[in-house]
Design brief:
Elements (H helix, E strand, L loop, with lengths): L1 H4 L5 E5 L4 E8 L3 H9 L3 H4 L1 E2 L3 E8 L6 E7 L5 E12 L3 E8 L11 E10 L2 E9 L5 H22 L7
Antiparallel strand pairs: 1-2, 2-9, 3-4, 4-5, 5-6, 6-7, 7-8, 8-9
């Protein structure tokens, strides 16, 4: 189908000069569904995989200035906390939040970064664009996070995309 060929599959690139990452994917689900999966306890269901990491202990005060936190659990059982604050919430189209690892992430440390999610309606779904800023001087961390955002968008897409029966 021609429209499927034009769909954007999860892709992320790091711009080392700007110190930011841009990730994008077209997902076959409405913006409202994706928005809810991004900001609710549902993240514990879809974000990660047992062989990479899983997310636990999601909490969020869903208002501008509200705090959020989670724990990334590695396959060995070790837990790495992260947290931040919501800067902007415009349901179901935009979320802007800070992000900080509450442990010394190699190369990045505890530097606060900013993540912006844009959810734009497209034919048969939503284009999800993620801009992650704050990697100036941390090129390797930016490249590592770009790979992570591609996985993240794949997990999100697999979770929110309706499954067709009979396949």
């Amino acid at each position: 189908m021609a429209t499927d060929l034009m769909r954007l599959h999860p892709k992320a690139v790091a711009d080392r000069e700007k110190g930011e990452i841009l990730a994008i994917a077209d997902i076959d689900a409405p913006a409202e569904r994706i928005f809810n999966a991004l900001i609710s306890k549902e993240v514990e269901t879809w974000w990660g995989s047992p062989d990479v990491y899983t997310v636990r202990n999601w909490t969020a005060d869903l208002r501008v200035g509200g705090k959020w936190s989670l724990s990334v659990v590695r396959p060995d059982g070790s837990s790495l906390p992260a947290s931040g604050e919501f800067i902007e919430i415009d349901a179901p189209h935009r979320i802007v939040m800070t992000r900080r690892y509450d442990w010394d992430y190699p190369i990045l440390g505890r530097r606060e970064t900013k993540v912006t999610y844009l959810l734009d309606s497209i034919e048969n779904g939503t284009r999800v664009t993620i801009r992650h800023e704050g990697f100036a001087g941390c090129t390797q961390a930016a490249y590592d996070h770009a790979e992570g955002w591609e996985r993240y968008l794949g997990w999100l897409s697999d979770y929110v995309t309706p499954k067709s029966g009979g396949e």
